[in-house]
Specification:
By secondary structure, the protein is an alpha/beta fold. The chain has 19 helices and 16 strands. It comes from Durusdinium trenchii.
Length: 553
């Protein structure tokens, strides 16, 4: 056991004779029977250093003399080691190429945006490469549905060229990753034909062979993500949201909808669903390079999910858990402050009015999530008394009665104060700690809820994290060292290697620098790529865009 411990923990290596000598000294002097773990490394002992450390050589000094050339303290070495090995994306170095498959308006772009936002929040190096955006950049925006027909050979060649160019740029981005870094690149295209997917695999396999002979490159893995949908309600909503695409700017809505339906029919005529046999691409190939191929198939926006050959990837684990929680239902998410900038709790009646107005506007019940403070409990009690309007309950329309309003008080929303108690600000934990703690109990819970939800945030730190999760981050230039950190009020000890900045004029700001309106609710509305944001006053009902701008992920 001792040899195993020494192999795993480098700071624990010392001669057996030194161990016996230290134990003998500690038994001989009762005043020195104090573990060095109880020295001045905590706030409680920091103010009493003179009383806590006895005069003369301490046990810590003896240990450091035995170590000899090692100058750093054992606790510092332990902390450094844990920082390096606490993240599975660091321990299991891997480059994942996520290849989207599916017809238009099946939620591929929305799923892609959600994956990028979530993984960036967790500190994963991730980027999306969209073939449609590349086509529009080359001057082919607003083209008619005939361009996507299989009978148009010239257009077919152009679409294949753009798709493979997009794949090549993705691989170049993967290869440019810093040594020891895991990456996830997403190829956002239809990829509806077997020929296209085979060409993508051939290109990725060539890159995997190059990475196999380069010790600094991470091994490659390909995962196909296919979205299949036949739910008419989801398709109708997705069709309407697609009309805001750049291809239909300034077009009349009915004409744009007809053209888009023709585009979908052109893709349906050539659609070849993903088969499990395609995952055996690398078998019987004369090469030492390994490139595992897996698949994830999502049916009707998350009603059913099938995963194949993805369980051995630690880097893909947060991606798979997010896909299990997602759905494509159109809804709104309201992020409200529990208190103002002065720390004074807002009256519960303000939230009651917001809830009533939003439910009347949507025609259905909204769920409510609050913190666990006394004031949050009082707010939750008042909101649970709000009667459901007839149109929201479904009784007036003769529809079956849905489940009642869900009002939750979550302790995970509360920050951790210096003495270990929960409060509204992340004063004793970094933003990275706050994100990790909120991920399962708050973020994935919000993804699972099918209805619109009002989240009453106990602190601005919580609201910043939620806003970053749903509205995304700007691109971060990892290669040029522009990474900031999720800062905590305690200083750089809580730093993590990623920088969150948001769209519009908020670009290049870390998440700690975001200014949240203290007397307004952020209303997030789902669109075809993510969520757009508007501001809703707590005292009055008129809405206006945040600082005069409309934000979208």
């Amino acid at each position: 056991m001792a040899s195993c411990f020494s192999a795993c923990w480098p700071w624990a290596k010392r001669p057996a004779s030194a161990q016996r000598r230290t134990s003998t000294d500690s038994r001989g002097k009762g005043s020195n029977r104090q573990s060095f773990f109880n020295l001045s490394h905590t706030k409680k002992t920091e103010g009493n250093k003179s009383n806590a450390i006895p005069k003369g050589p301490s046990v810590l000094d003896k240990v450091l003399r035995v170590v000899g050339s090692r100058k750093e303290e054992p606790l510092a070495a332990m902390s450094e080691w844990m920082e390096k090995t606490a993240d599975p994306q660091v321990v299991s170095r891997e480059a994942i190429i996520l290849v989207l498959v599916g017809l238009p308006a099946r939620g591929k772009s929305f799923i892609c945006g959600a994956v990028v936002r979530h993984l960036k929040l967790l500190g994963v190096r991730v980027r999306s490469f969209n073939a449609g955006e590349l086509r529009r950049e080359t001057g082919k925006a607003g083209i008619e549905a005939d361009f996507f027909s299989s009978s148009n050979l010239e257009a077919f060649k152009e679409r294949e060229r753009l798709a493979m160019l997009c794949c090549q740029r993705l691989l170049e981005w993967i290869q440019a990753a810093p040594p020891g870094t895991s990456s996830i690149g997403i190829l956002d295209a239809t990829n509806t034909t077997l020929l296209r997917r085979q060409r993508v695999l051939e290109t990725c396999f060539a890159a995997a062979q190059e990475a196999h002979h380069d010790e600094k490159s991470a091994p490659l893995r390909v995962i196909f993500l296919e979205s299949l949908c036949s739910d008419p309600k989801i398709l109708q909503d997705n069709y309407q949201m697609k009309l805001s695409n750049d291809d239909y700017k300034g077009a009349e809505s009915s004409a744009a909808l007809d053209d888009f339906k023709k585009r979908v029919e052109a893709y349906e005529a050539q659609y070849e669903p993903l088969q499990e046999g395609e995952l055996d691409f690398t078998q019987n190939r004369p090469s030492d390079a390994a490139m595992p191929v897996g698949s994830v198939q999502i049916y009707d926006g998350g009603q059913k999910i099938t995963c194949c050959r993805t369980g051995s990837s630690l880097v893909a684990a947060p991606l798979i858990s997010l896909l299990h929680a997602m759905h494509l239902t159109r809804r709104q998410i309201l992020l409200a402050p529990e208190s103002n900038s002065a720390g004074q709790g807002l009256p519960p009646q303000s939230f009651v009015e917001i809830l009533k107005n939003e439910e009347e506007k949507e025609g259905r019940i909204m769920d409510v999530i609050c913190g666990a403070s006394k004031h949050a409990v009082r707010i939750a009690q008042e909101l649970s008394k709000v009667p459901s309007v007839p149109s929201a309950s479904g009784v007036a329309a003769g529809a079956p009665r849905g489940r009642p309003r869900c009002v939750l008080n979550l302790r995970a929303l509360q920050g951790r104060s210096a003495d270990g108690a929960a409060d509204g600000a992340a004063t004793a934990e970094s933003y990275a700690d706050l994100v990790r703690r909120m991920r399962v109990e708050v973020l994935l819970l919000l993804e699972r809820l099918p209805r619109s939800v009002l989240v009453i945030c106990p602190g601005e730190d919580v609201r910043r994290v939620l806003f970053a999760h749903f509205c995304g981050c700007s691109e971060v230039d990892v290669n040029h060292g522009t990474l900031g950190c999720l800062r905590s009020p305690l200083g750089p000890s809580g730093a993590i290697n990623h920088h969150l900045s948001l769209p519009g004029s908020w670009c290049q700001k870390s998440i700690a620098d975001l200014e949240m309106p203290s007397w307004a609710v952020l209303e997030l509305t789902r669109d075809h790529k993510g969520y757009s944001c508007e501001e809703l006053e707590l005292q009055q009902q008129p809405r206006h865009s945040l600082s005069g701008r409309r934000l979208s992920a």
